Input
Amino acid sequence: MRILVIGGSYFFGRVFVMLAAKEHDVTVVNRGTCSVAELGAKQIKGDRKEEGVWKSIEDDYDCVVDFCAYEKGDIARVLENMPGSIGQYVFISTVDVYERGKGGLIEEDAPFETRILPGEAGGYIAGKVALEQEIGEACMKRGEKDNMSAVYVLANDK
Output
């Protein structure tokens, strides 16, 4: 399987790359502050906010795993500018995107948090909510209406 990882240098992303590279062809896109070569992965250096980074990636990938999408536009920039095809897009999100105070088990169809919460955590949550909506819209546009969870299967329409 060909996997493109966005981020993947620190924390869980690094562990994911290390384990995935044992069995798959893994390429990591990051700013290059931490090498992933010793983990068995290829590296593309660049900032995710630069469209040119995505336009330069012409290969097809079975899966994109996104560890560092934090604000509106981060996912759309990838999907709109990568010329190669993507089989699946795995967006690492957070349960904090769902409305607080409902109690009980939170299902994936629970309403998103709409309140503006204070501080850095509030900004983080607002960004992740915007991205959940962004990738949901991308799925609807591509005919994947039933894939509205944190893992989205995107049909290549390029």
Confidence is low (pLDDT under 50) at residues 147-158. DSSP finds four helices and six strands in the chain. The two ends are 20 Å apart (CA to CA). Helices lie at 11-20, 51-55, 74-81, 119-141.
